[in-house]
C-alpha cells in the first residue's frame, strides 16, 4: 500500500477492508497514550512492584465522568492479565479490577469478588464466611493489586455503612499487604476523607478536563492517526479543533464519541475525511446541555 502519512500502519492496513468492516473497527475501543495517562500508568506500575508492608500506599484516580479513568485502568489491567501458573497449583491474578456495588455493602462486595474469580458461594452465607473465602482466594491467586471502580458509590449509604465499607477496604489492604486503587468522580475523594487512616494512604491522581492548548491539538493528531479514513482531515487545524473542543467540552470520552460518529458518517457518505460539514451533520448535544434536557429529548 502506498504511504499514507495521516495514518499509522495499523489504520492504513484497515483501508483494504470493506466499509462495514472499517466501521466496526472505528467503533471499537482504542487507547491513546497521552502524557497524563502515561504518568498515572507509571504510578500504577510503581505500586504493582511495591514491597509488601503493613502500611501499603494506595492511589485514588479521580476525575469527571467520561474523562478516561476507566479506560486507563482497563489498559493497565490488559498489561497485567491473569495467566496460567504451570509451576503452581492455579491461575495467577496480579491485578483484580472490580466495580464497587451501587451502595456500600460488604456482602455484595465480597459476592462480586467471588464471582470474578469463578468461585462457588452462597449469597445467603454470613459475611464473615465470605470474607474468609475472599482472603483465602486472593492469596491463592497471588493478587498484587486491587482496583475498585466507581468507588464514589460509598456515599450512597448512610454514615455507618460508609464507615463499614471503608473498613473493608482497609482490612483487605492490611491483610493481603497489597496496594488498593480507587477510581471515581471527585466525590470519591470526599468519601475516602471520612476515614483519616485511609485518607493518609491514598494519593490522589486527578484526571482533569482538557484545555484548548497544544496538548489537545496533539491529542487530535493522535486520534486522526488511528481512524482508517482515506484522506487527511487535519483535525488539529484551528477551525476543526475549535469545533471539536466545543462539542466535547474537554472530555476525552466525549471527543472519542464525536470522532467515532464523524468517522462513520464520512465512510458511509464516501467523503472519507472529517470536515466542518461532517461535524455539523451529526446529531450531537454537548454534555452540559445534555444534562439539562428532559429524558428522550435530542435537541
Structure in words:
The chain is α/β, with parallel strands linked by helices and 299 residues long. The chain is 48% helix and 9% strand. The protein is built from 14 helices and five strands. Strands 2-3-4-1-5 form a five-stranded parallel sheet, with helices on both faces. Strand 3, helix 7 and strand 4 form a beta-alpha-beta unit. Helix 5 runs parallel beside helix 6 and helix 11 packs across helix 12. It is elongated, with a radius of gyration of 22 Å. The relative contact order is 0.15.
Number of helices: 14
| Overall SS class | alpha/beta
Taken from the alpha-carbon principal axes, the silhouette is elongated
Q: How helix-rich are the residues, as a percent range?
A: 40-55%
Low-confidence stretches: none
Distance between the termini: 43 Å
List the helices and strands and how they pair.
Blueprint: H1 9-13, H2 19-26, H3 35-48, E1 58-63, H4 69-79, E2 95-99, H5 106-116, H6 127-140, E3 145-149, H7 159-176, E4 180-184, H8 187-192, H9 196-201, E5 202-207, H10 214-226, H11 238-248, H12 252-269, H13 276-281, H14 287-290
Parallel strand pairs: 1-4, 1-5, 2-3, 3-4
Helix pairs in contact: 2-12, 5-6, 11-12
Amino acid at each position: 500500500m502506498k504511504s499514507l502519512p495521516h495514518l499509522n500502519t495499523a489504520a492504513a492496513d484497515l483501508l483494504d477492508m470493506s466499509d462495514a468492516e472499517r466501521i466496526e473497527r472505528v467503533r471499537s475501543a482504542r487507547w491513546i497514550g497521552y502524557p497524563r495517562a502515561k504518568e498515572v500508568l507509571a504510578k500504577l506500575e510503581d505500586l504493582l512492584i511495591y514491597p509488601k508492608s503493613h502500611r501499603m500506599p494506595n492511589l485514588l484516580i479521580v476525575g469527571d465522568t467520561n474523562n478516561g479513568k476507566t479506560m486507563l485502568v482497563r489498559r493497565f489491567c490488559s498489561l497485567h492479565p491473569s495467566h496460567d501458573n504451570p509451576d503452581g497449583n492455579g491461575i495467577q491474578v496480579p491485578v483484580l479490577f472490580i466495580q464497587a456495588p451501587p451502595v456500600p455493602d460488604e456482602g455484595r462486595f465480597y459476592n462480586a469478588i467471588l464471582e470474578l474469580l469463578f468461585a462457588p458461594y452462597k449469597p445467603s452465607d454470613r459475611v464473615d464466611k465470605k470474607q474468609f473465602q475472599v482472603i483465602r482466594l486472593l492469596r491463592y491467586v497471588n493478587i498484587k493489586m486491587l482496583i475498585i471502580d466507581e468507588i464514589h458509590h460509598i456515599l450512597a449509604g448512610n454514615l455507618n455503612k460508609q464507615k463499614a465499607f471503608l473498613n473493608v477496604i482497609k482490612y483487605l489492604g492490611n491483610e493481603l499487604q497489597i496496594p488498593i486503587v480507587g477510581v471515581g468522580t471527585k466525590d470519591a475523594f470526599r468519601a475516602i476523607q471520612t476515614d483519616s487512616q485511609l485518607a493518609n494512604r491514598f494519593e490522589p491522581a486527578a484526571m482533569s478536563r482538557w484545555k484548548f492548548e497544544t496538548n489537545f491539538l496533539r491529542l487530535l493528531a493522535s486520534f486522526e492517526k488511528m481512524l482508517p479514513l482515506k484522506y487527511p482531515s487535519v483535525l488539529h487545524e484551528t477551525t476543526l479543533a475549535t469545533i471539536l473542543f466545543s462539542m466535547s467540552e474537554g472530555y476525552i470520552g466525549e471527543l472519542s464519541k464525536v470522532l467515532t460518529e464523524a468517522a462513520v458518517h464520512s465512510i458511509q457518505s464516501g467523503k472519507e475525511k472529517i470536515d466542518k460539514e461532517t461535524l455539523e451533520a451529526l446529531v450531537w448535544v454537548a454534555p452540559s446541555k445534555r444534562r439539562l434536557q428532559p429524558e428522550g429529548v435530542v435537541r
